[in-house]
Each structure stands twice: as C-alpha cells, then as structure tokens.
Design brief:
- The complex is a heterodimer of chains A (486) and B (507).
- In chain A, 76% of the residues lie in helices and 1% in strands.
- Chain A has 486 residues and is mainly alpha-helical.
- Chain A has one domain (10-480).
- Chain A has a two-stranded antiparallel sheet with strand order 1-2.
- The two termini of chain A are 18 Å apart.
- Chain B has 507 residues and is mainly alpha-helical.
- Chain B has a domain at 279-507.
- Chain B has a two-stranded antiparallel sheet.
- In chain B, β1 and β2 (76-82) form a beta hairpin.
- The longest helix of chain B has 34 residues, at 161-194.
- Chain B starts with 6 loop residues before the first helix and ends with a helix.
- The A-B interface holds A 368, 383, 386, 388-390, 394, 398, 401-402, 405-406, 410, 413-414, 417-418, 420-421, 424-425, 428, 431-432, 435-436, 471-472, 475-476, 479 and B 71-74, 111, 139-141, 143-144, 146-147, 150-151, 154-155, 161-162, 165-166, 169-170, 173-174, 177-178, 180-181, 184-185, 187-188.
Chain lengths: 486, 507
Amino acid sequence: MPANFMPSAAEYFRFAPEIILTIVGTLVMILEAMTGDRDKSSLGYVSLLGLAAAMAAAVAANNDPGLAFQSMIIVDGFATFFRVLVLGVGMLTILVSTNYLSEAKANSGDFYALILFSVVGQSLMACANELIMIFIGIEISSIASYILAGYLRDDRRNNESALKYFLMGSFATAFLLYGVAWIYGLTGSTNLGEIRTVLSHGTAPTAMVGISAALMLVGLAFKVSAAPFQVWAPDVYQGSSAPISAFMSAGPKAAAFAVMVRVFYTSFDSISNQWEPVFWIMSLATMVIGNFAALQQRNIKRMLAYSSIAHAGYVMVAVTSHSAVGTAAVMFYLASYCLMNIGAFAVVTWMARDGEKFVEVDDFSGLAQKQPFVTAILTVLILSLVGVPLTGGFFGKFLVFKAAIDSHLMWLAILGLLNSAVAAYYYLRVLVVMYFREPGASTVNLPPVAGTLRVAMLVTTLGTIALGIFPGLILGFATQSSTLGK
Amino acid sequence: MNMGDHLLSWILFTPLLGMVVVLAVPSSNKYLVRWVANLAALASFLVSLQLVLRFDTHAAGFQFVERASWIASLGVNYSIGVDGISYLLVILTTALTLLSVLASWSEVEERLPAYYAMLLLLETGILGVFLSLDFFLFYVFWEAVLVPMYFLIGIWGGERRLYAALKFFLYTMTGSVLMLIGILILYFAHANQFGVRTFEIADLMRVQLPIAAERTVFWLLFLGFAVKVPMFPFHTWLPDAHTEAPTAGSVMLAGVLLKMGTYGFLRISLPLLPNASQDWGIVCILAVLSLIAILYGALVSLMQKDWKKLVAYSSVSHMGFITLGIFSLNVKGLTGAVIQQINHGISTGLLFLLVGIIYERRHTREIAEFGGVAHRMPNYAVVFAIAMLSSAGLPLLNGFVGEFTILQGAFEVNPWWAALAVPGIVLGAAYLLWLYQRTMLGELTNEKNRQLLDLNLREWAVVLPLVAAAFWIGIYPKPLFEIVEKPVAQIMDRLHRTELHQKEVQP
C-alpha cells in the first residue's frame, strides 16, 4: 500500500467527468432556487453544457488511461466508452424532457439535477474497479432514478411506479451488497483485480465463491432487467413519464452491463464454467419472456418495456460468449440500443400529450398521413429495433450472434435469432397502424415537434443509420477496448 | 459521366438516386411524380444496357469487379461483380422494374412518391443481391429487400394486404436469420483455417468443413433460400403476397424476387458446399420437394377461382422446375435452370401485368366474372394467348427452351424425375388453357364486360417488350446458352473437383 495517500493530479484528471457533473448538478439546484418562477428550460441547457463538458473530460481522460485513488477507479477504453454512452444518454434525455416538462407544468431545475446525479452514478459504475465503488455508483444512479420515476408527484401512476421501483430496487441492491460481503470474506479484498488473483489460486471454496457470484448477479440482473428479475420493468416504464422511461431503459441498463462484464470477466474469470451456463439460461429466458410478452401488449410504453427486456437478453447472449469479441458486441449493441430506444421513447413522448393520454399502439393509426416526419423517424427506429440491415440494430444483433457462434454457443444463437424474428411481429404492428390504418381521434390536433425534441429525434435516427452504414465508427474503438484493463 | 470503372456501382445506385429525386418532387403534382419515376426507372435500365454492350461472353469468372473495404475489423468488403448468371438477372431486374413502373401509371393514385420510391429501392436491393461477391453484402441486400416489398404489399395492396405483408415479412425473416448462422459458420471456419477474416464468396470456397458440418450449413442456407424460392413446404406465403400485392409488386415478386432464392443455390450453396450439395440424400430430398412443388402447384392452380392466385400458384410449379434443374447437378440441368429463371420472369411477369390491366378495368379477379372478353379486347386476347403459351412451354416460345433443357438434365440423373415432372407441364397447359377458355373465349355473358376497352398505347408499350423477348428466346436461344455456358461450366468444375478429391481420399 502506498505511503502517500494524497491523489496525484493525474488521478483527479481521470475522475474529472464525475467531478464536473457533481458541481454542475449542485449548481443547477442552486440556480433553481434563485430563478423563482421563471422558465426553467435554461437550466436544461446548463445541464446539457455540463454533460458536454463531462464528456469532453471523459474523452480527454482516455488519453492517459490508468488507475486512480488506490485502484478504486480505472480509466480504460471500456470505461471511457460507457462513460461517453451514459453521458450521451443523459443529454438525449434532457433534450426529450424539456418540452414535456413545460407542458406538464413541472419544468424545474430539480429534474435536471437529478438526471445529472443519476448520470454521475452510472459514469462511476463504468469506471469503478472495486466492489464498493460499484455499489456506490449503483446507489447514486438508482436513488436519483427512483425519484425521477415518481417525478410528477400528482400523477398516481408515477407514484406507483416510483414505489415499485424503489422497493424492488433496494431489495436487489441488498443482494448485491450481500454478495460483496461474501466475496470480501472469502478473498479479503474488494478490488476486482485482487479478487481475480486470489480466486485464480483456487484456494477459496468453489461453492461459496459461486454463491457470492450468484448474489451479485441477482443485483445486476435486476438492474439490466434480465429474467427472472425483469418483472418490475414493464410496470415501472409504463407508470413513469415517457422521457424518464427512455432514460431508465438506456443509461442505468448500459452502466449495469458494464459492471456485469467487468466483474464477471475480471474477478470471476476463473470460475467461468460455473456462471456461463447460468448466463446461457438467463439470456434465453430473457429473450423469450421479453419477446413473447411484448406480443401481447397494446400499450406502446409497455411494449417497449418488454422489448427492452428482450434486448437485454440479446446483450446477455454476448456476455455469455465470454470473449473479447463478445465484449465488443456488448458495447456496440448497447450504443445502438440506447440510440434507438431513446428515439422511440422520444416519439412516444411527443405523441402522448395531456397527461399521457395517447400511449396505445392504436393511437399511432394513420400517423403517416398526418405527420410524415415523425413517421419516418419512428420507421427507421422500428426497423432498427427489428434488426433490418443498414441500421445500428442490425449490426448490434449481427455482432452479438457472431460472438455467440465464435464461442460455440450454436443453439443460443439459433434460438436468439428465431426470437428476433418473433420480435419483428410486434414491431411491425406499429408500422402497420401508422401506415395502413386511417387516422383516428388521437391524431387530431397533433402538436408541432418542439425544437429540442426534434433534435433528439434527429440525433437518434441519424445515429442509428450512421451505425448501420459505418459501424466502424465505434466498432474499431470497441474492439480495441474489449480487452479490459485488469 | 465516366461509368467506365464503376459500371456496376452505377447500375446498383442509379435507382437509389432516382428514389431521392422522386421523393424531392412535390407530391401534389402527381403527373410530374409519375414522369420523374418513369424517367428514373428508364435511366437505371439504360445504365444497365451498358453491360450488354461491354459484357464479354467468352471470359470466365467475374467481370467489372469492384472491391473496397467496408468494415475493416470484420473483413467485410463492398465487392461486386457479374458473371453470366447474374448478368442475365441484372438485365431482367432493370427491365422488369421499368415495365412495372410504367404499368403503375394509372393503377396507383395514393401516396405516389412513396410508392415509386419503394419500387426503386426494391430494385437496388435486388440488384445488390445479384451483384454481391461478398456474403455479408449479399445478406445485407437480401434483408433490405424485405422492407420495400413489405410496404408495397401493405400500403398499396388488396383487401387482405396486412395479413399478406406480415406473413411475407415473417416467413422470409425467419428463413434469413437461419441463413445468417450458416454464413457465420463459414466465416469462422475460414478464419480458423486460413487466419483471415473475410466474407468474400471466392475465399470462402477454400473452406474445408467436415461433411456433417457442411450438411448443417447447407440446411441453414437452404432454409433462407427455400423460403424465397419458395419451395414446398415453405410456399404458403407466396399466394397471399402475390394476390394482395399491387401489379408492380407481383411482377417484381414473381419476376425477380423469387429468383433470389434459386440464385442463392447457384451462387452459394453449390460452389461453397459442393460435398453437401452432392450428398445423395440431400439431392434426393430436394428433388422430391421440387417434384412435389411442380405437381402440387399445378394441381392447386387448376382449382383456383381467382385469376391472380392461379398465376401465383403456377409460379410455385414453375419454380419447382428450376430447383429440379439445379439439383440435377449436370450441365443440362443447371443451364436449363438459369435460363428458366429468365423465362419465368418474362412469362409470369407478363401474365401478372395482363391480370393487372384487366383488374384496373373491372376491379375484380374472379374468373367467373369474365368470359368472352376476346370480343371486346381482341388485342389483349392475343397477347394473353402468347403469355399463356409461353408459360405453358409451347415450342418456339421461351418457356419451352428452359423446361425442355431441365427435363433433359433431370432425365440424365434419374428418368423417374423427368417422368414425374412431365405431368406438371401437362397440367400447366391444362390450367392455363382452361383459364383462357373461361375468360377470353365463349359468349360475352356478363354485361359489365361490354364496356371493356382494349389495350391503350401505354399498355402496349408495357407488354410488347416481353412478348418480343418471349419469341426471341423461343426462336433463337443460342446467345442465352452462350452467356450461361461459362458460369455453368465453372460450377460443374467445382462440383467435379471435389468429387475427384473425395475419390482420391477414400481409397
């Protein structure tokens, strides 16, 4: 252990994104108190700037990768990728939210501050190299998300959603913490690398290591909504405001996958023969449950919730393949998933109106005749969710199943791909009603697509297409960073 | 414009450019939209005609090859080229697109720019499949074709269009995801054996798989291709899709889209998996499936009450001939299959166009609604007779050339195959002649048919090129055989070499 506990400047530099976000988040809360009854959209822009600055810091930090704060933080390509991803998710969420909040007369700095704090937690999860840091990151992210889920406090559904999310979430994190305690007892360390070293000696009792890994997996599976811990997701996504559903389905999930990959690929690498079969079953169950349940849904938020469970299943397939190729697939998939899912929720946000009155799939009837722009946006995003070539979603799936076949998970690949054909059915239903049905009451008095929302729609859609035509844009970086710094 | 070096890219992307232009035209001016769309399709056709001038029939291998790295880290290339097989299909595609676009002039009224955009997008997708030399690129185009076709059926189709569009999408999607697994197995096998990651079809040919693995890959690819052809028992999407699609959609579907499946067998299954393709068990299964398709398709056609559905089921029967030819695995069979691909495109395309012409006038396809139409539309009746006879395989018309060659090939392998396929031809003649008799001949009994007008100038322009092609191929097919000769010899060479190789190894 080093005698000097004072962190060096380089270490602060590696932690700069989180520092910046915390400062900006606090600043936004102070500004909120100072601005009184005025329009709070400007606070949204301040938050956007903060996120942009943090993103710049994250990219800059990657020029000097390494550990920080007694190896509690690690900055490597993998961490940077997920930091940039969750920061981007934060930015998109704010772009989607501003107009929605103004309409709900709930535009306030608190909201933006909570987003920023939640992103701090996720960013920390991305670069944590130590179980306690991971736990703290998850808690920071989750607590802010719990509040966000119930942000419209006069809305009954928001309250229900927040309470559900909070109760189940705390329960799941307790499992995680319990697992951390076990592994600390077994190895005497919470550092991922040190745990790996100890476990690779094979002296720790295998069964107990397995139990501690399982306990941690429960906590993480909850966060990524993998079966059988997915039950909360549809209720929470449906009950929360649409922009928040967009946020919860993207940022926390991506960060939790980052943690899952880092913990299991680093610390539990030596017992992979124990967890790989579990992941195999979980990924298949997640895909099947997500897709088949989504078939039944009439509410589009609920459908997207189940579909996001299914997507978690695809990512789990890549995690199961347990290889560098698999890691790169996880990274690429989550990037394209975040884009297309937030984009889809952005459209839902725009459509919902008046306390989210129009959230049935059928409410999109005849949209093609009334609003060609939004229809085109949603068409691209839906095709990407289906996994049609020349969209990011296609390459995501391609890389995932390529990784699976590379690791000889032939049946998982076959069953997963058949699942994606099932998924086409419910996604296409949205296209069907938009293009092939006559407009109904829901498409009377459609609002204009507000400036920031339009930006969010365009960014997600163009991003999805860009990833579909030039996957090399991020695939190269993902492949380089797929060997985790250990 | 210098197309010298990038001729195939020009062919591939001219429709896409056309699509952008069509979408840019103000949609309120329908007349302008139609003109622009027709000019775009004409431009694509003219560009592809350059190929006719410059294609060297006597050269072996691929011509006009273009290669550029697309996704370096995966080893995916943008690599395209043509040989005799794809050359014919490319010309067929651009020609049929042009005719389909022209045929849509007065049929489609709603959302015109989107309609033409989808047709042109479909053209690029299909051309991409035929031109790709990279398996990944092939797959991308293969899947991309689904989207415009889905919308063409779903938006501009008939009564049960939603059902048909969805069924089409789900069937083909399921088939192609399984194909993807086959592709990946080959990709990894190549990476393992040669240390190079590539999807180039020419490179993947070097892969040596154990026969069991090769069989697995064969069946995985088979599912992708067989759904598209469609082979029995994967054909059930076809009658629905055909019947509900707008005329142009049916023409493209029957004319070229189905050929993607048979092309897949020719370009990929046979050369890449020669051992599995020559596995006697597999060959027998495929031959039996083809024979079932031939007979079953013909019998079901015989019973149809719907004009368009009859033509649709006849496609199942005719495509059965093509797959039978392919899996005869000899020069005659393969040559016949390649030529029959083109012939089926011409004659079935023509039949669908003719059904579309009558549907536009009467808005019904019930065969019972017609009778004695020849009295009112004599020219139409003549053209329809030619189309029917060409489809039925009458000598001196195109259909005969292909089917006869296929039967020769099948006979060489097993006389029973030919013997069982011949009733298909007889039945084919029966359902077509019976259709003709019920619609064109006899007394004009239905009052509504008294107002029918004969072919107008535009409709003549649509049908004449195909009629001319039907006669030309029927009377003087030699150029066609010359074009096909080299690529077929190459496939045969590939099959023989592995056969020899096996014989050397076994004793």
